Amino acid sequence: MKFALKLALAASVSLASLAAPAFAQSQSDATQAPAKEAAQLGTFGFDTAGMDTSVSPADDFYGYANGKWAANTPIPADKSNYGMFTALDDLSKDRVKLVLDAEKDRAGSKAGDVYASYIDQATVEKTGLKPIQPWLKTVRSVKSRAAFEKLLPVAARNGVGALFGGYVGQDDKNPDVYIFQMYQAGTGLPDRDMYLVENDKFEGIRKAYKAYLASMLTLAGEKSADARADAIFAMEKRIAEVQWTREDSGDATKTYNKMSLAQLDAITPGLKMSSILTKLSPKIGDVIVNQPSALTGISKIYAETDIAVLKDQMIVNSLSSFSNVLPDSVSDTTFAFYGTTLQGTPKREPRWKRGVSLTEGTVGDEVGKAYAAKYFPPETKAAMDVLVKNVLSAMGRRIDGLAWMQPETKVKAREKLANFTTKIGYPDRWKDYSKLKIVRGDLFGNDLRANQWGFDDNMSKLGQPIRRWEWGMLPQTVNAYANFGMNEIVFPAAILQPPFFDAKADPAVNYGGIGAVIGHEVSHHFDDQGAKYDATGKLADWWTESDVKAFEAAGKKLIAQYDAYKIFPDASVKGEFTLGENIGDLAGLTIAFDAYRTSLNGKEPPVIDGMSGDQRFFLGWAQVWRRNYREANLRQRLITDPHSPSEQRAWVVRNLDKWYDAFQPKADGKLYLKPEDRVRIW
Question: Considering the entire predicted model, what is its pTM?
Fold first, then answer.
């Protein structure tokens, strides 16, 4: 989707007993006070046992706050990384399983029927590939390019990817209207660099990918699989050469290219796109093309590629798309490449967890409604309302105090802030699945019909009012996001738990945790891309030229700072690619600190376990980013994830003067920055 789900998954919960920190209390006039007894983590909401106080905060604040946790926390065999987010995700899955175990015994429950169909592995194995054979027969029956083009809209509705992707979303320059949007596709590896960059790591991935393509063709019953896999790869490599980079694809200005269908046909030679799109929906008129030159290049490659190769790619894509509802011979093969080779994950999740994920993807709102009713208490929402209001107020004060922003721009920024919609916990309205046919025991059919229902539901938005009630995440999702077109920030119920938020924990930890997450999402509306959208959610120029220059100058300093973080000898953080998220972290933490201090009403917070309130605030921030990675997963994230690794996210504190006041780091520390070198944006 066009809006970004702007918070990366990250860190884990350790309930170890707490040890006293090894730094001195500098505020001699502060009063020692006991922490709230009922905090779920430690004595006040922070796991001090996970700290490594032998590490200087000035050298590695992440290691100081989280070093022992990192050293003592193994990554489970069914995960590519493990931390706070994944621990909460496991908790959500456990809770949803309880819901679904009850639902599968209730007649008429779509969620129960989907889940029961998935956990009945014996039936899946016995049925084999029989359910997908009619579709594979349709693909094989294609004899001409014209017939293949007729197949593309059918494949899209079935949930099978091809050369292009598309969906109905808000028109960035007319956000009260839905429009069809197109983007580049056509490759099976996660990023173009994996096809094009010459190094040993990527060469190994390319070799494994070709073997995967051959295995999938063989499973489908095709012969001469190795040679045919090579042909698919050769086509995809050509496609990768014309694809846009992630940096360009993430630029809201560059990707807004509105065209009529006639104009679209003109830039896609060899492929009648207007005919394909009108079969998707006769309501499609003008379209927004995210990467025009890529679509031109892909169209030319399509016209020059043997129809047999296009069909072979469709066969592989079909098995891949439905692998989770097919026998283990297929799903294990898919996991072996995408899970183990690319992510480093040794084994698959247990079947019940995969069943939970599948059910959520099929009838997510039905599951979410039950989850929210059982696990999201009203008092949590009430407390979050207060936190959000305090953070929004802090952002307003920040805007007022900016030296680099012009007065007329501040007025518009304030207007945008005042127009924010905040969604907390769960939707006010749920999706209606009454027209979705679910049959217990028909796992493949359920998945196919769910894909078709979701496609039809998305297409039905054309010509209709904007669904401002609709959420992009489920209540049980451990994450948060900013939606530029809706001018909203959204916090699902599942993230509103320790270590992010605990109503009985020390406020400093809550502000350093969920407060900074709130600030992160708020600030996304003013980051390198979000700032391009005005108070109505419209992509528009509302900053003065001097504002833009000042903002870009600060952004360049932040890019350079993150470019310098070398994660492996041959791989670093990409400062430009991660800029928006790094701005979100920097601004979010800055805003949350202001909100925390303001919430004290001029009183100095108590000292708890030898720590000042300001120290606890920054430790609360570091704690949520606890995460251990497998090397393969971290390497892929450096290419595909717009968020910096967790360690570097914690290091953003080095830009805040208040962190220096709290921890008094020495000037020879590795994280120490001279005041003039600290990046200040908001």
Answer: 0.92
